[in-house]
TrEMBL record, chain A:
Gene this protein is translated from: glpB
Pfam family, one: FAD_binding_2
GO molecular function, one term: glycerol-3-phosphate dehydrogenase (quinone) activity
SUPFAM superfamilies: FAD/NAD(P)-binding domain
GO cellular component terms, semicolon-separated: glycerol-3-phosphate dehydrogenase (FAD) complex
Superkingdom as given in the UniProt entry: Archaea
Signal peptide: none
EC number: 1.1.5.3
Residue ranges of domain FAD-dependent oxidoreductase 2 FAD-binding in the record: 6-404
Name of the protein in its database record: Glycerol-3-phosphate dehydrogenase
TrEMBL record, chain B:
Region: Disordered, residue numbers: 1-21
Keywords: 4Fe-4S, Iron, Iron-sulfur, Metal-binding, Oxidoreductase, Repeat
Protein name per the record: Glycerol-3-phosphate dehydrogenase
Annotated ranges, domain 4Fe-4S ferredoxin-type: 79-111
PANTHER family linked: ANAEROBIC GLYCEROL-3-PHOSPHATE DEHYDROGENASE SUBUNIT C (PTHR32479:SF19), GLYCOLATE OXIDASE IRON-SULFUR SUBUNIT (PTHR32479)
A Pfam family recorded for this sequence: Fer4_8
InterPro entries: 4Fe4S_Fe-S-bd, 4Fe4S_Fe_S_CS, Cys_rich_dom, G3P_DH_GlpC_su, Helical_ferredxn
One Gene Ontology cellular component: glycerol-3-phosphate dehydrogenase (FAD) complex
Keyword Iron-sulfur: yes
One GO biological process term: anaerobic respiration
Database matches in Gene3D superfamilies: Alpha-helical ferredoxin (1.10.1060.10)
Top EC class for this record: oxidoreductase
Entry EC no(s): 1.1.5.3
Amino acid sequence: MAITDDVLVIGGGIAACTAALSAAETGARVRLLAHKKSTLRQASGLVDVLGYAGDEGPFSDPYAGLDALPEDHPYHIVGEDGIRDGLRLFDEAVGDAYQGGHTDTNALVMTHGGAVKPTARYPESVAPGLASSSGDMLLVGFENLTDFDAPVAADHLTAAGVPFSVRGVTLEFPKSFRSDAKVTRFAKALDRDESVDGGTARSVLADAIDAELDGETRVGFPAMLGDDHDDEVRDELADRLGVPVFEVPTGPPSLLGLKLEDMLFDALDEAGVRISAGNPAVDFEAEDGRIETVIVDQKSRRTPYEADQIVLATGGLVGKGIDSDREHITEPVFGCHIPHPEDRYEWSEPEAFGSHAFARFGVVPDDELRPTDEDGAVQFENLRAAGGVVGGADIAREKSASGVSLSTGAVAGRLAGEEATQ
Amino acid sequence: MSDAESPTNPNLNPGAQTDDFEAVEVFPESTDMDLRPGADNCYKCTACDVSCPVAEVDDEFPGPKFQGPEQWRLKRKDDEPVDDSIMSCSNCMRCDDACPSGVPLSQMHNTARGEYVEKEMDKLSREYIRNRILANYGTLAQLGSMFPRLTNAMMGNSLVQMVNEKVLGITSERDFPAFATQTFREWWNERGGPKVRSEEKRVAYFHGCYSNYNTPEVGKAMVRVFESFGYEVVVPKQRCSGTPMFANGMLEDAKRAAGINVENFSGLLNEGYDVIASCTSCSMSLRQEYPELFDIDGIKDVSEHTYEALEYLRIHENLEDELREVSVDDQSFAYHAPCHARNQGLDRQSVELFRELDGVEIEDVGDSCSGISGTYGWKEEKYDKSMQIAADMFDHMEHAQGDVGMTECPTCSMQMEHGTGYDIKHPLQLLEEALV
Ligand SMILES: Cc1cc2nc3c(=O)[nH]c(=O)nc-3n(C[C@H](O)[C@H](O)[C@H](O)COP(=O)(O)OP(=O)(O)OC[C@H]3O[C@@H](n4cnc5c(N)ncnc54)[C@H](O)[C@@H]3O)c2cc1C
Ligand code: SF4
Ligand code: SF4
C-alpha cells in the first residue's frame, strides 16, 4: 500500500499551493508534498504579474504587456484567463490581507532599497505607502535592523522623482536586543507590547517618532510591525501618531513572506488539501509513459506516494527544482528535459542584470503544461509543471515571478484535477 | 538525513590523510566525523535563525547559525572552545527543517554540545549533575516505578519540590508526571506477550521510557491496534532512545543506550520485523541521530526500518478507508504537532486521518513549538523561557474548538496540560477507540 491520492502536487511554494487549491476545486483529493520551507520565506510578500517585457515597461496594465513577451513564455500557454484565474485563487486564499484585487492596474510599491516597482497584489500593511498615492513620507529605520537604511531609501525614492517629499531617520528601538537580533524578535516585542524603559514598546516607539514628525502625513517602517497581532500594532501606532503607518517589504528573512506562507497553508487546510512536509521527492516509478509512484526520502527510508495525476512545482534554481553543475542543467526528480546551451559561457551575460539565458532555464511545457523531451513529445502523460521549474520567463527582469507561479499553478492544478476526477 | 551523514567514511578517520586534503578533526574526542562540507553549505540566509524558538525569547542565545556553521568555522581555524550558549539549544531540530541548503545543524549542535560537556563542564557542578539526572530519566523512572504510589506522593510534595529546585535546579513550577502503578512491560508480561502470531506482519515495539513508566495506556493502545490489523508485536528489551541525552550533551550515555537498542532490534530485522515507536522523539532518534552521531554495527539498518506507529499503518494498511467506516463518540481535539514529528514529515498525519473519522473534530493549533523540549523546560533557569515559547500554543489551544489536547510527544503533552489544564490524548488512543 502506498499513500494514495488523486492529485499529488510536489513543492511548497506559491506555485504548489495554487496548483493544489485549483485541483481541489475540481473535487479531486489532493496532496501537497513539500520538502523545505518555500522561498516565500525569503520573498518580499509582493505578488508581481508583469512589469516589464523586452524593452517595454513599466506597464500600468500588466495584461497590456503580454504581446511583447517572447513566444515561449508560459503566459502564452495559460493566457490572460489563466493569469486571472491564478489571481482569483490567490485573492480567495488571502482575503482582506492583500490589496490590489479591485483593479487590473499595477500598483507602484516601494522596495526596501527605495526603488519603486509595479506589482499586482500587496499586503494590506503596505498599502498606505504606495508611491502612487500622495502624502509626504517619513521613513523610520532602526540601528539594529541593518536591512533597511531609511535615509538611503528616502534619497533613492526622491531621486526616482516621486511627487511627494520623503525623509528618512534612524532611531533606536525602545528595547535593546543583541546586535544581530532577528526581525522576528522586534515583531514579537511589538506584538506583546513588552515593557521597556519609560513605558511599553509601542508607546515609547510612538513617542520617539512623534518627536521626529515634521508635517509628514504617513510613516513607513521595515516590515516588522508585529506578527500575530500586526493589525493591533499598526492601529495603535497610527492612533498615537495621528497619521497612517505602513510597512516596506524587506529582503530575507521576510516577515511578509512568512505571513503569506501561513495564509496559503491555512487556505490549503480549509480546502481539505492534505499536506506532507519535511521530506523530498527523490525518485519515481513509471509504466507506459505514466508516473505510477513518487518516492519520498523519509529520513533515509523510501516511502511511496501514489496519485493519478502529478504536478511538479519544485521551483527554479533557488527552490532546488532545477539543479546545475558545471556542465549540465537538470530537473532532479523526474529527469525532465531542460534545454541549455552546450557552452557554459553562454549561460549568462557579463552584466549582472543582463538578459541571462539561465534566468529562462526550465522545462518546456506543451499546451497543457506537460514537460516535453528533446523532440517535443510529452514526457509523462500525467505530469504537469508549474512555477519556477517552467522555463521561458525571465521573472526577475519582467517582475513576473509570482504571476507565473500563480497562473501556471492554477492551470496545471485544474487540468490535473479534471483529469483525475473524470 | 543531513549531508554529513556518514561517520564511517574511511578518509575521515582520525589522523588519516588523503591526497586531496588534510582531514581536520574538529571534535576528536566525541566523534570522528568531518562536518566541514556541511558548514560550507551555509549561505547565511538566516532561515534557521527565524525558526529557532529559543532565539525568539532568549536574547542571550545567538541562534542556530552561530551554534552550527559559524562556530564550526571558528573552531577549525583557531581551535576555539565551544561557546557555552550551546547549552541553551533545546534540540528541537527546527533549524534542520528550515535550512534550505542541507546544513546538518542539529548534528553540529549535538556534537558541539558533546564536546562542551566533556571538555568544559565541571563534573561536580550542580548544572552537570542536574542535567545528568534529567538526561537519565529512564533510570530515575525505573526506580520511581518500583514504588509508584510512594514516589508520586513524594514528588508531589512541596518540600521535595523545593529541594529539587534549590539544590538541583529542577523547577518547582511543574508537577512530576505520575508513575503508573503497573508499567507497560509488566502488563505485557502479565498478558503473556503477543496475542497474534504472524510470519508476514511483524513489528518490534520501541516503547521508550515514558509510555513504559508513565503512560502505559499508549503502549497498550499501540499493541491492540496493531494486533487488530493482524500484526505480531514483540517488545524487545530496550533502553532510553537517547533523546534527553543528546539534548544535554551526554553523548557517552547516549551511545551506550544506542548500542543496546541497536543490538536488540537489529537482529529482529532479518526475521522480518520493522521497528515501531509511539513517541516521535524516539523514532527521530533511531532514524536520524543514531546514524548521524554513532558508528555502531547495524545502526543504519535499524534506522531504515524504524517508523512512527501511525505512519506505519498509513503506509502498510488502508487506514483511511477503515476509519471512514467507523465512528466514535463525539469529541473534539486541539492537536499540537511536536517539533520532532515535523522533522519526520509527520506533523499533519493525525489531523488528516481523524478529519475523516465520524464523531471527531480536530484542529491543528499551529506550528509553534511547545517550548518544553524534553528536559529544557524542567530546568529552573529555562522554565520562564519555556513558558514564553509556549504562549502561542496555549493561546491557539484555548481558541481552538476542542477541549482535549492531542499530541504524540510525552513532554509536549506535559506542557499542554500544564498550560491549559486540558486532558491530552495520544493519536493511538483514539485509533484504539475507533478500531478495536
Ligand atoms: C529573495 C526573493 C525575493 C522575491 N521577491 C518577489 C517579489 O517581490 N515579487 C514576486 O512576485 N515574487 C518574488 N519572489 C518569487 C516568488 O516568491 C517565488 O519564489 C516564485 O514565484 C517561485 O515559486 P515556486 O512556487 O515556483 O517555487 P519556490 O518558491 O522556489 O518553491 C519550491 C518549493 O518546492 C520544494 N521542493 C523542491 N524540490 C522538492 C522535492 N524534490 N520534493 C519536494 N519538494 C521540493 C521546495 O522545498 C520549495 O518549498 C521572490 C523570491 C525570492 C527568493
Ligand atoms: S535545535 Fe531548536 S533550539 Fe537548537 S538551535 Fe535549532 S531551532 Fe534553536
Ligand atoms: S538556514 Fe542553512 S543556509 Fe541559511 S543561515 Fe541557517 S544554516 Fe545557513
